[in-house]
Amino acid sequence: MKQILLVLSSIVILGCSNPHTFILNDIEVNKYFISGSINHAFKENKIDKSPLIVINGVPFEYNKKQDTILLPLKKSDILNLEFLNKNSSRIIYNEKENAGAIIITARIQD
């Protein structure tokens, strides 16, 4: 019984401790281009599991309950990727946003 509880609690803790997987609308090689940067920022405690995403100044709406988030960008569209810590994102964007922010500057499509 203790082993079952230990396994279940481990699954819950590990499952809840990782950020979403963010993928790009790109070829298979570049699909996970920004996931490494986002995971690094998560490990450094800059962002939480469900950060605010801002693309060219516009907040990107996504379902925070899903594990995989598809961003409507390709690797070649991304010019800059920055992270705002929890306090900065709360001050700049909304006092309710406590999970940090990912700021993406992208090439404007014609």
UniProtKB/TrEMBL annotation:
Origin: domain of life: Bacteria
Annotated protein name in UniProt: TonB-dependent receptor plug domain-containing protein
Species the sequence originates in: Flavobacterium frigoritolerans
